[in-house]
UniProtKB/TrEMBL annotation:
Protein's organism: Dinghuibacter silviterrae
Protein name according to UniProt: DNA polymerase IV
GO molecular-function term, one example from the UniProt record: DNA-directed DNA polymerase activity
Origin: domain of life: Bacteria
Family of the protein in this entry: Belongs to the DNA polymerase type-Y family.
Annotated binding of Mg(2+), by residue: 12, 108
Major location (coarse): cytoplasm
Gene name in the database record: dinB
Length: 361
């Protein structure tokens, strides 16, 4: 009762916001630019850096102040989310020529299931090339594509030849590919987990494969079971169109466990800025603010608070999260991960609120 082999494409636009800005403004072309908050304002964060800026080590989610230190000539550009949304819809329209089984992950990234395609082309590789060509010719932007039989491997493949790249990892080469892959390249393995693995002599997929499922769960919590399957190339998650955004969040694992409010407050403020930016990008406001805490022993708790009206206001998010954290800190703790998210999205508040948004940042 074998299921038919699926054909999955992962498309990822190259430095999307920055590329759109460079396309639309010749003054930015060939220059290091960062789309995001200004380094002067409080809590500005880089949303996307151009490839010229990445050479200096500028990365997304980095505080804008830090980005300017790394690259003094960096040009900061305010995001134009309405434009990115429009371009994203144009990209989506190109996908729809081939399949309606599209799962967007964000404005610039999507999975496509082309096991059956609308034009009867039959080759995922050919479709991926046609999509990249259409994006280049019609939108003057570049995309990278990965093709495989599941989402996990397709996503890794799209990153292999970035920017403007393409990679295909077929069923017969998946296991060998995963064995050679460095653990930090595993999507979902953050830098802290990667370091923890290396400390134990786990450098590649092959090393990871030597561990039993029980050992992986013991050492890495629930995700351990996911690693066990993924290193064997097993991932049967379907491509889900119309998947609603149910929550918007950001989290980080720390190099050293945190134990005081003084250590955690700046981390929470930074995560809140990222969440606020993501909310605005998706034009969402959430009523329920959730704090996620993972302790050093991998125990995971969440604490939530529901506001009277949906919000994307940074200060309100920050103060709510801090309040939630105070409750957790009533006993001594060692914390390895903090996360902030908003959910329970509602209609935007009445226009009375507009003043707030104009003065923001
Ligand atoms: Mg991208």
């Amino acid at each position: 009762m074998d299921k038919p082999i699926r054909k999955i494409i992962h498309i990822d636009m190259d430095a999307f916001y920055a590329s759109v800005e460079q396309r639309d403004n010749p003054l930015y072309r060939g220059k290091p630019i960062a789309v995001g908050g200004s380094p002067e304002g409080r809590g500005g964060v880089v949303a996307t850096a151009s490839y010229e800026a990445r050479k200096f080590g500028v990365r997304s989610a980095m505080p804008s102040k830090r980005a300017r230190e790394l690259c003094p000539d960096l040009i900061f550009v305010r995001p134009r989310f309405d434009v990115y949304k429009e371009v994203s819809a144009q990209i989506r329209a190109i996908f729809h020529r081939y399949t309606d089984l599209i799962e967007p992950l964000s404005l610039d990234e999507a999975y496509l299931d082309v096991t059956v395609d609308k034009l009867g082309i039959g080759s995922a590789i050919e479709i991926a090339h046609a999509i990249r060509k259409a994006i280049r010719e019609e939108l003057q932007l570049t995309a990278s594509a990965g093709v495989s039989v599941n989402k996990f491997v397709a996503k890794i493949a799209s990153d292999l030849q970035k920017p403007d790249g393409f990679a295909f990892i077929g069923p017969s080469s998946i296991e060998a590919f995963m064995e050679k892959l460095a653990v930090e390249k595993f999507h979902g393995v953050g830098r802290v987990t990667a370091q923890k693995m290396k400390d134990r002599g786990i450098f590649t997929g092959a090393d990871l494969k030597k561990l039993t499922e029980e050992e992986l769960v013991r050492d890495f919590g629930k995700t351990g079971a996911f690693y066990y399957r993924i290193v064997r190339g097993l991932d049967d998650r379907p491509v889900q169109p119309h998947r609603e955004t149910k929550s918007v969040g950001a989290e980080d694992t720390f190099q050293e466990d945190l134990s005081s409010l003084e250590e955690m407050a700046p981390e929470l403020d930074r995560l809140s800025v990222i969440v606020r930016d993501r909310l605005q990008r998706h034009q969402l406001r959430g009523k329920t603010v959730t704090l996620k805490v993972k302790f050093s022993d991998f125990r995971l708790i969440t604490r939530s608070f529901s506001l009277p009206v949906p919000t994307d206001d940074l200060e309100l998010i920050q103060s709510t999260v801090r309040q939630l954290l105070r409750g957790v800190l009533e006993e001594p703790v060692k914390i390895r991960l903090l996360g902030v998210s908003l959910s329970n999205f509602g209609e935007p508040p009445p226009t009375v609120q507009l003043g707030l948004f104009f003065t923001e940042d």
